[in-house]
Amino acid sequence: MMKRSGRKRLKLTELIYIPLLAVVACLVYVIETPSSALFAAFFLVGGSFILIKGSDLFVESAVSISASLGVSEHTIGLTVVAFGTSLPELAVSVLASYQHHPETAWGNVVGSNVTNIALVLGIAMIITALKPSRFAVRDSLSMLVVSGIVLLLAYDGMLRWYDGVVLVVLYAVFIRMLRGRETKGESDGTVPLGPALVLLSLGIVGVAVGADAVVRGAVDTSRLLGVKEVAVAASIVALGTSLPELTASVMATIKKHHGIAVGNVIGSNLMNIGFVLGIAAMVRGIPIPVASPAILFFIGSALMVPLVLKKGWIGRKTGMTFLALYALFVVVLYWLQ
User: Fold this and answer.
1) In sequence order, what are the residues at sequence separation of 6 or more whose Cβ sits closer than 8 angstroms to the Cβ of residue 87?
2) pLDDT tier, 71 (very low <50, low <70, confident <90, very high otherwise)
């Protein structure tokens, strides 16, 4: 009975996903739509749904394919799943960089990192007190160091292509350092590759179309509201692209998997600033005002994580502080940017 209801939920999701994907693709690539509040909202909401569902399909199918090939579960988690949860940020930032929207490119990364720490981790701490794993402090220090390196590379106000190469290499070094923690899982040769490849293709198409819609919606929204593009990217877009991390951490917290809840945030943030921002800078140089309020929150939130995790158990009071920080971040974006 459980399997049958699971299949029914999957079919229902696909019935929503595929037609919406077709409609958004037509509006973005075929039909010329006016710059209006209605279309901007539709692109933001519809594009975010397609992004998230596309990423979900990508992760599920990639894990199935990896399992059928005998790749260990831990390696899948470090590579495929980490890539999948940050796929919305990667798609939006790289596309925005390519389309000459640098504020959306870096604003999405910075906003996603602040959102992951202040909102996602804050909600997780409010649900229940968290006991981070023994690697959490060390990994959060790595996140802080890479965040600082981003500022050093962009000290002149520009993140160039070779700076992007440095960031990608740093992320690769971090992944290499994690290999010592790997535990081998059992292979599963029974997973059918055909359906997994179909879902993988649907996921990739969805991420591409969804990213294009979100970028367009963000640009139109910033123009209609009369605010800077980075404010929309670091708040509305970042919240949308951080929904996979939010869902994963909240579910992990409810199921008492504290290490996953905290590790998901740290791992996603490292991928955002190392791989995502690095690739976006390699596509096209990104001007970054290092003294902007968004950057200050970016560094400040990264600094808070190792300080908080050193305490061991972290509870609701800390969670409320993190949520207050997120609220202040959004207010500052729209009033001081």
Assistant:
1) 51, 54, 55, 58, 59, 207
2) low
pLDDT tens digits along 145-180: 999 999 999 999 999 999 999 999 999 998 888 766
Three-class SS of residue 242? coil
Nearest to 171 by CA among 270, 303, 279: 270
In the chain, the number of structural domains is 1
Query: Domain range spanning residue 235?
Result: 2-336
Calculate the alpha carbon distances from 290 to 152, 157, 236 in Å: 9, 6, 21
Distance CA(313)–CA(303), nearest Å, equals: 18
CATH number for the domain spanning 141: value is: 1.20.1420.30
Burial 193-225 (b: 16+ CB within 10 A, else e): eeebeebbebbbbbbbbbbbbbbbbbbbbbeee
Are the C-beta atoms of residues 64 and 196 closer than 8 Å to each other?
A: yes
The pTM of this model reads 0.76
